[in-house]
Amino acid sequence: MTATKLDGKATLASILDELSGRVAALTAAGRTPGLATVLVGDDPGSQSYVRAKHNDCAKVGITSIRRDLPADATQADVEKVIDELNADPACTGYIVQLPLPKGLDSGAALERMDPDKDADGLHPTNLGRLVLQEPGPLPCTPRGVVELLRRYDVPLNGAKVTVLGRGVTVGRPLGLLLTLRSVNATVTLCHTGTKDVAAELRAADVIVAAAGVPGLVTADMVKPGAAVLDVGITRGEDGLVGDVAPEVAEVASYLAPVPGGVGPMTRGMLLTNVVERAERGTE
Ligand SMILES: Nc1nc(=O)c2c([nH]1)NC[C@@H]1CN(c3ccc(C(=O)N[C@@H](CCC(=O)O)C(=O)O)cc3)C=[N+]21
Ligand SMILES: [Mg+2]
Q1: Angle 140-151/171-178 helices, nearest 10 degrees?
Q2: Residue 97 known to be catalytic
Q3: Across the 283 residues of the chain, what is the mean pLDDT of every consecutive 10-residue run?
Q4: How would you classify the pairing of strands 186-190 and 93-96?
Q5: H or E stretch at 265
Q6: In this structure, are residues 175 and 156 in contact, taking their beta carbons and an 8 Å threshold?
Q7: Ligand 1: residues whose CB is within 6 Å?
Q8: Is ipTM strictly over 0.90?
Q9: One of 7, 56, 120, 205 is an active-site residue; which one?
Q10: Does the predicted TM-score (pTM) go above 0.90?
Q11: Nearest ligand (C-alpha, residue 262)
Q12: Parallel, antiparallel or unpaired: strands 63-69 and 34-40
């Protein structure tokens, strides 16, 4: 078997195309959405992600606002920018690019955001809304995983999904999203305390690997015909490396690779969150 690629790059292009029409309608009504990014420091990876997000905004007609702070910015500097964005009517939603430089408190920064402007869905209020199955912005990477599977007609209703990793941006919220009534998957969330990860993986119809350990998932751990989504990103000497070994493509039915899989979907869901917020209006 050679897996069908779950092509996040092509899917992002479709999503941006769909969003363009919705943004045009908002703009015609005088309500152009605006996405802001808060970037602290000069980590090249973070700079490139932020640049990509602004390029996406330009493609669909979302106004983009960049707030870049130097690496030696203080917590008070960051919080001042957050307060300004909370008050700025041109900013429909925004993100604080993570991780923040050492010494800054990202939890305190996130909590200071207006939860209704949280384009990432990572504010405690929005994570709480997800637990309670109340409407709100959904975390972008988990939403990207579910949306990518939906667009390729990979069933989740009743499926056994094994997630590797319990991080706050992917694993834990993904478990919550997959178990919503509207998705209806059965989830096993594996972490460093899991006794037999290979056995949990072999039982899965869908595997989502978000451990950040290069090559962790090998072909012998995958049930033939399973769908595998790689969300691990490690910056290696020759580019990005995922958690999934390349030979997994020989046993999986579908594979979302790194790069070109879930990463671009994360960006698509960020813009979707902003457009949805603009469509709802600000009350
Ligand atoms: N507040 C916040 N929100 C985030 O959503 C957030 C963050 N902080 N910090 C860092 C992580 C990482 N992340 C990615 C987004 C897009 C790609 C992406 O588009 N990747 C492409 C190419 C990447 C490349 O070539 O460098 C791909 O996988 O094909 C990857 C990773 C969002 N993050
Ligand atoms: Mg995001």
Answers
A1: 50
A2: yes
A3: 95 98 98 98 95 98 98 98 98 97 97 98 98 97 98 98 97 98 97 98 98 97 98 90 97 97 98 98 68
A4: unpaired
A5: helix 262-280
A6: no
A7: 48-49, 52, 95-98, 120, 140, 233, 240, 258-260, 263-264, 266-267
A8: yes
A9: 120
A10: yes
A11: 1
A12: parallel
Q: Which residues contact 45 (CB under 8 A, 6 or more apart)?
A: 235
Instruction: Give me the residues near ligand 2 (ion), CB cutoff below 5 Å.
Output: 120, 140, 270
Convert the pLDDT of each residue in 189-223 to its tens digit: 999 999 999 999 999 999 999 999 999 999 999 99
Q: Which two tokens stand for residue 177?
A: 């999203």
Phi, psi of 113, rounded to the nearest 5 degrees: -70, 150
Answer left, alpha or beta for residue 30, where phi above 0 means left and psi between -120 and 50 means alpha.
Answer: left
**Nearest-CA residue for atom 31 of ligand 1:** 263
The whole-angstrom separation of Cα 205 and Cα 186 is 10
Residues across the chain:
283
Burial tier of 76 (Cβ tally within 10 Å: 0-12, 13-18, 19+): exposed
Peptide bond into 135 cis (omega under 30): no
Burial class (CB in 10 A: 0-12, 13-18, 19+), 101: middle
For ligand 2, the distance from its centroid to the CA atom of residue 141, given in whole angstroms, is: 6
Determine the Cα–Cα distance for residues 79 and 109; give it in Å rounded to an integer.
6
